[in-house]
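Pasting as-is:
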Amino acid sequence: MSTLSQKAAAIRQPAPGNAAGTAPPVLSVRDVRITDRAGGREIVHGVGFTLVPGRTVGIVGESGSGKTLTCRAALGILPAHFEVSHGSIEIEGRDIADLSPAQWTALRGSTISAVFQDPASYLNPSITVGAQVAEVLRVKKGVGRRAARREAVELLDAVHLRDPELVYGQYVHELSGGMLQRVLIAAAVAAGPRILIADEATTALDVTVQAEILDLLADLRDRTGLALVVVSHDLAVVAQLCDEVLVMREGEVVEHGPTREVLHHPRHDYTRLLIAEHQQYGLEKYLAVEEDA
């Protein structure tokens, strides 16, 4: 049984007292407001959603809409001077406001993890990419050096990298952007997190590679019960991957609902504008598929 399959078996077991399919949320964001203390103004105005294992929530909006700040709040990595000034965020039922720095260190990677837009910025160019994945396993799971290497190769294989043994020994400059994103995903899921936040994870990739990464995320979700938060300015990404979507504008959620409902029956003018703008960039084919379903 592969590393990811073993994690899938563990994750898919229903919690005591809960029937399969009725698992409690792994992430709950309730009326979260984020304030810039330095500027004395509220940036995010009352965002809320819940996420259960095996499901995907999309957050879509233009740059500056507050979608990345919302996710950074869930990860406990808001920039300096920013704070959650109202509402609450719970991870597996625990309010993150009560977490100490040491507890956050233990939580990140093993319970909640993230993949960002520019993988090269998050990987050390002087260390082989495989060794970096193995280091996550050693730190977060406490496995020995030899076992970490073996599991790292398995993870590189699981994210569909050809010749994972070869890739293990390569450096950042030797890999393409799509390959680096796969390595970053392997590192992000190495410790078996329940939640993965993908923040514009496919933005810098060409259309073909973007589709492959989205398929990979869907595959990981379906095989392991991973709960996904997908942040994007691209409605086609949301249409392909997400069960529900929040549309954000200027820090406010202007529309929230099942993806199919929002895309086919938008209620807000801004959502209609986004759909009209994105139809020429690939959204129309997903809308057509939904219509035929």
